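Q: Got a minute? One more chain.
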Amino acid sequence: MIKRTAEFTLGLIGGVFGIFFGLLSLLFGGVSAAFGMGNEVLWLGFSAILFSILGIIGASIVKHKTKMAGWFMTIAAVCGVISISAFYIIPGALLLVGGLMALIRKER
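A: Always. Here it is, folded:
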């Protein structure tokens, strides 16, 4: 059994950054809703936070269920970038690299 420290670390950092940027998006969405510009950004920020939590769940199970964790992190990365685009570039990249490493890297 190989250690999955890199995947765990990338997934955890990506998930935490994703929650931070999701909250930042919620802040901007709240300001835009206060000025009457709509509240779509609020829902997209909320969905980005949920996908970040999915990425953290993937990071936490990467040592036991590697393939499922890789899919969780990859899905969280792609859907987070779709949700809040430019705000999610850094967490999306971290989650995508961690997820793909979990999917591709084989045991020796």
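A: The two ends are 8 Å apart (CA to CA).
Q: Perfect, thanks.
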